[in-house]
Task: structure prediction
Amino acid sequence: MTKARIAIVVSGLLIGGLAPALAAPPHAVLLTQESRIGFVTKQMGVPVEGQFRKFEAQIALDAKRPDGGSVAMQIDTGSATLGAPQADAELPTAAWFDVAHHPRASFQSESIRHLGGGKLEVTGTLTIKGRARPLVVPVTIAPGEGMKSVASGSFTVQRLEFRIGDGDWSDVSMVADAVQVRFRLTLTGLAAP
Amino acid sequence: MQADPSSYAPLAASASAAVRDRYDGVAIALHWLLALLLTATFCVGLVMTDLSLTPARLKLYNWHKWAGVTILVLSVLRLTWRLSHRPPPLPVAVEAAMSPLRKTIFASTHRLLYVLFLAVPLAGWAYTSAAGYPVVWFGVLPLPDFVPVDKVLADALRLLHVACAFTLAAMVLLHVLATFKHQLVDRDGLMWRMWPSPRRRQAR
Result:
C-alpha cells in the first residue's frame, strides 16, 4: 500500500468515525428488494417500460430537518432491462449504456428542500455515460409497512444529453428523446418528515 | 372506362351475365385495396422477424401493426357491406358446371377468408398487447389492450397469429389459383365480375 493510499484510508476512517459525532443526519437504509427504479421510453409513440434491477444508495436524512441531508445513488447500467431478450442484448452496447466503459450511473444530491406535506425537492447531479447534468427530483415520502418509509417520484431526462441511443438510434421520431424515470424506494431508519 | 351497358357487344345470355353481373364499386374497391394491403402486410411480417434490432426493424414492426389494424377496420366495413349488399349470383353456366364439392369449397373458402381477415389482425393485436407493446395506430392513436401483459399468453397468441396468417395466405393462394383456372382453363370471364373496370368479354 502506498503512503497516499494509506492517507486516504486513514482520512476516510477519521471522517467516517467523526461524522456521527458531528451530529450528522441519521443514515437510512435502502431495501433494494422492495424498491424499483423504472423508466418509460416511447418507441414510435408506443410507451415501453423498463427497469434497473441493481442499484444502491447512501441516504443521510434527518426527517425533522431534511435540508441538511444528502442522497447518493449508484445504478448498475448493465442491470437495465426492457423485458425483451433482443432489446436487453442491445442495452449494454456502446450505442446505449456502454456498460463496458460506464458500468454505473450515479446521482449525488447537492441540496434538499423541504416543501412540506411529505414532499422534498432534491437538487443534484445525474451522471450517465460519464456525462453529468443538473437534475431536480421531486420526492414524496410516505410511511410504509412497520418502520419503513417509501420515497417515490418521477422525473424526465433527455436521453441524448447522455448520448443514450447514439448513432442510428439518435432519431427521436423512432425513440423519443424524453425518458420518464419512476422510482419507488423503500427505506428503513427514516421517519416521514 | 365508364360502366355503360350499351357498350357491351351482344352476347349469349350466360356469357353476358358473367360480364354484366358485376360486384358494386364499393365491393370492388375494398377487394383490391385489401388484396394489396394483405399481401404487403404479410410480406413485411415474413421479413421483419429475421431482422436484428435496428431502427428499420422497429419501423417495419410498427408499419405492420398499423397496416394490420387498418386491415381490421376495412374488413369490418367490407363484411358489413357484403352482408347488406347481395353479391351478384354466379352466372348460370358457371354454376351449372360446378360439382357440389366445388360449390362447397367455393362457399367455405370465401367464408374462411372473411373469418381470417378479422382473426389475423385481432390475434396480432392481442399478441403485441400481451407482449407489453400496445399498438399506437400511426403513432397517434393508442389502442386499448384487451388482454393482460403475460409472457405465456403472448407466446400462444403469436402462434395463433402466425398460424392464422399462413392459413389466410393459403386461402388467398387457392382463391387466386381458382381465378386463373376460371380465366385460363374455363375461359368463363368470371374474373371480370371483380375487375376494377368493366370489360368486353374476350372472343374465344
Summary: Chain A touches chain B through 18 residues (CB under 8 Å). Residues 78 and 95 of chain A are 13 Å apart (CA to CA). The mean pLDDT of chain A is 88.
